[in-house]
Please model this.
Amino acid sequence: MSTEKTSRLKVDWQSIIRGNALIPVLAIVTSLIVGGILVAIANTDVQAAAGNIFSAPGTFFSTLGQTVGGAYDALFRGSIFNYQASDVALMFKPLTETLAFATPITLTGLALAISFRSGLFNIGGTGQIIFGAMFAGWVGIYVHLPFWIHLPLAIVVGVIGGAFFGALVGLLKATTGANEVIVTIMFNYIAGLLLQYLLKTPLLQAPNTANPISPAVQDTAKYPLLFGDTNRLHWGFFVMLAAVVFTWWLMNRSSIGFKFRAIGHNPRAARVAGINLGLTYVAVMAVSGALAGLAGTTQILGTEQHLTIGVSASFGIDAITVALLGRSNPWGVLAAGILFGGLRAGAVTMQAEQAVPVDIVTVVQSMIVLFIAAPPLVRAIYRIRKGAEVEAF
Amino acid sequence: MKLSKRPFVTVAVVALLTLLLAAVAPHDITTINVSSDTDFFHIADFPVSVTIVVWTCAALNILLAAGAGSFLFLARRKVPGAITGVAFFAMALSALVYLYHGNNMTITSLLQGSLALSVPLIFGSMAGVLSERVGVVNIAIEGQLLFGAFASAMIASMTHSLWAGLFGSLVAGALVAWILAVFSIKYRVDQIIVGVVVNMLVVGLTNFLFGTLMGDNPVLFNQPPRFDKFSLPLLGQIPVIGPVLFNQTPIVYLMYLALVVVFVALFKTRWGLRVRAVGEYPKAADTVGINVYRTRYVSVVLGGALAGLGGAFFTLGQVGSFGQGITHGAGYIALAALIFGRWNPLLAACAALLFGFAQNLQYGLAIIGSPLPSEFLLMLPYVLTVIAVAGLVGKVTGPAASGKPYVKE
Model:
């Protein structure tokens, strides 16, 4: 055991100097550069200046700098620290926005990370968030209870909703061998359409409106806000941190997690060792769905407070990249979740101030994951010599 | 040999459902309209009694269930697939007549709408067939369709040439497929991961450029011309079939051509045999001298080009401009059609037509104010796919090496 530990340290050190730990950093930097190029190409001022590049090269480069610089400045001010704000609280507000976005993204990222490490590719984050939000939302809207029991009950019901929808996938896989990737993709659409339908029925639709929107969640079922009414960050953030620790404990310290990882490594060996494959598939998907359902509760009982078709936002998809970027490790997922939360928060400011569509974040995100998935590509771009081979996924 | 009871159970369930439909159907008249003005001869609209149709269909299905049962238990033979097919058709017919009771059911427009919704699905499912038959899982059909739609609109708008736009869609779809191919063949990244991430990339990129380039200057970048429909001589005048199949835009005619070519190429040529060999057992293919990597690249990229054409149908064939997320997840339904059609281009096209029909039905029903919520009709392709992959209607098995990267030793 002890020799393994020292050699592990050595490998870590070697991987840093040979550039393997460098790859995520380079992937992020490269993607941000490409994002900057896209912002420049799409900007009409830059296009106009490019037309006169030979007569006025100075103008071209200053316009280019202003455009790209302005965009990334807005991204920074929207996600980390707004140095232009009038008072200290407002200066730090962007950071709370980042964490507010990071909460559901990280939770769903954890959900997917657990399934990835167990050899199941759950891309049903969207559907499981929707189920969590529907269940929690119903309790939050229609059940009348005091705060100390209402909020926990709504959370638990939401978690059960997500777990149920996840377990269904596991059950299908266990009993019929249905491929979980296809099933979860289809379930995302089914959940979305089900929500769309229910938002037109009295079960969820607010009275006196023709719009597909539910009544507001009662105050007794809301996650309390952390920094007063002007910030959206709520106690769900600490629930998310607890979930990170829980996931670490579950996957690395508990016997259930050991079984999960065993079927992820080699399902046949796991079965020979006496692990019930079918039951474990159901359990993995239930736990995974439960965490995504929890993300749904932070949406409906935290930031959104009304059920709409867009309750899952883009978080189900973001979470895939978060789980991949964090290499399905809980702490890695947390870091990646905060990074992408920051990108989402900053993108809002970037769109408002610089008219750069938020979709640029999706482009940057997906490029980061593609680069990280293919270290040889990043090495080729930066001409880094090949280091110790580390399995991508 | 053990006989599967599944076809019998399926037919029995279908018969039961048809009977249920018959029991709840009202005594009313549905007027069926099958003719258009351009036909050789005119068929008059004819009213049918809902009661007679639903009960006839129910009786037929009960007979079919009995027939399936006697095949299985008395003759101890495999239940013919035709029995299941006819039973489903009878159920669909009685459901339609029931849903349209008291109204006009215009067959031609019902089918025209279905075909229009199916065209991109059929192109997409062909892309999936070409890719998965050679051993690369193609979750990126959606991205290929979307980028094809975007590129065709932009290029046709800039050049004022439909054919340049169509060519652009081919290249765009091929490009997305090439990214999928490079990452899954060269860098051996999990093919599903690449597919999902490539879709994200294309969604982000096209949304971004739609909001900037196309938003700032729509006249230059997003006002392409549109293909006109033209009727093929003679064929176009056959009642029902003519206006539905042979009065279409060139993209649809290209689709018929592509369907035939892909089917023949895959199953009747040496190239197709190689493609399938690589998708089933790449090591054996390699041993007999087939270049596994090249075969994979070529087939995946060709598929992507076809999906690109499917994307062009949205912009140059229908809407006449690009919009955010214009494909509405058609790539995933195409994936579903591919699985439902068991990796066979013709069966996948049939599945795509079925899905298109279900999607189109909601418009027809919305107009006559039917109580069936449109969401459930929209759900149908997804539910059917889950049922298909769960193996409830016969076993579904893809190419053996699909999803696995190949490492040459």
